[in-house]
């Protein structure tokens, strides 16, 4: 298991150096989006309209934080289960999205799209939401404020800990990891 | 006859909602630490370390350990000598949940209707289970339950011929299907017997037992041990990244049942195995 430090947004070069099981610390700018925001983004793409964010090289974090306490940047912010985004993900990857942070397995279609588009799927530790929140230095809603916690937030993160689950070579940590420790 | 006021119930429920979400039980923390020593996967160890650190940050800053602060599941043990004054007991519970979730900066995850799906904005209504017991105390337990692990739970009506092995197979199948989704390491509550709804409630109640506790019934203690060992051989590991610590504990509750049935319910809880209790 390698430890790597990455700056977001990501380049093709960054992604090509990642393999499953790597512990990656992400710093820089990432964006949040859950089901409802994904639905709207893909609807815009279908209509050929402009998106509220430039997807090239970006990382989307599947999260719906708890409310921020007064003075805090954000509330607790751990990953939500990713399969709910599967239907929308390939279209976003085709538009240049490079990374996703969530938890749980992706569909075959998403995994194929990750390879095709040279992207990466990370898992953050589900439930480690108080720790994750500490690594978020700034948060700002940039689209869909009507969605509340599901609005698209622009986050500035520092050493956000994530693990590579699906790399750009088609490997899957959930499958390989489980096989390795089965007895 | 002891009198307990509506306000006392509101205050107690509100406090319990916050404390359950901020402070992970010592039993769970201890078990996570023991997991660090047992885990063979390096990634798995990292995960468990993060979870212990996360619990410490949550309690120090009084913030929820997980952003999914769940459905408020409330267990009431009402002494038959208790008289609630000043209003409706269930309304008091719901007012307490609303107060706790709003004032405690907890996420509101309840929608008004399973198909219309509009957020109620205060996490009400609670799911309330009531038992009438002897005595003049009111014991309230709040057990917030996240969606990720609840969605991976399952129930099956087995034929009695399936027996003990049938139960084991169903529990293993359920945990395997759940994979990484319920945020392992998990705690598994198993309800065997009763009927359809009784089995589900037995499984839920099993999650309230302290992690690491041994079933007083010897046969069930043996079954729990066997289930735990088999689950941890599946290889799922912390967060499903592979490893030997997939479950922290398995708790089994049983109840007599009909000659024709063998109901089994498996309620999966994540490592954020939250519940707090107070007796008034
Ligand atoms: S399954 Fe539990 S730990 Fe995981 S996100 Fe849901 S509530 Fe949090």
Q: In summary, what is this structure?
A:
The complex is a heterodimer of chains A (183) and B (280). Chain A has 183 residues and is of the alpha/beta class.
How do the SSEs of chain A run, as a string of H and E? EHEHEHEHEHEEH
Give the termini separation of chain B: 13 Å
The largest beta-sheet of chain B arranges its strands as 4-2-5-10
The CATH C-level name of the largest domain in chain B is: Alpha Beta
Helix content of chain A: 25-40%
CATH architecture assignment of chain A: Alpha-Beta Barrel
Count of alpha and pi helical runs of chain B: 8
Cα-atom Rg of chain B, whole angstroms?
19 Å
Q: Could you tell me which chain pair has the largest interface and how many residues each side has? A: A-B, 46 and 47 residues
Global geometry of chain B: globular
User: And the CATH topology of chain A?
Assistant: fumarase
Oligomer: heterodimer
Description:
The complex is a heterodimer of chains A (183) and B (280). Chain A is an alpha/beta fold and 183 residues long. Helices cover 26% and strands 27% of the residues of chain A. Chain A has helices at 12-16, 35-46, 89-94, 108-116, 129-134, 173-181, and strands at 3-8, 23-32, 59-61, 99-102, 120-123, 136-143, 152-166. In chain A, strands 2-3-4-5-7 form a five-stranded mixed β-barrel. By secondary structure, chain B is α/β, with parallel strands linked by helices. In chain B, 39% of the residues lie in helices and 25% in strands. Chain B is globular, with a radius of gyration of 19 Å. The mean pLDDT of chain B is 97. At the A-B interface, helix 5, strand 7 and helix 6 of A face helix 3 of B. Iron/sulfur cluster sits between chains B (66, 68, 70, 146-149, 182-183, 270, 272) and A (78, 126-127).
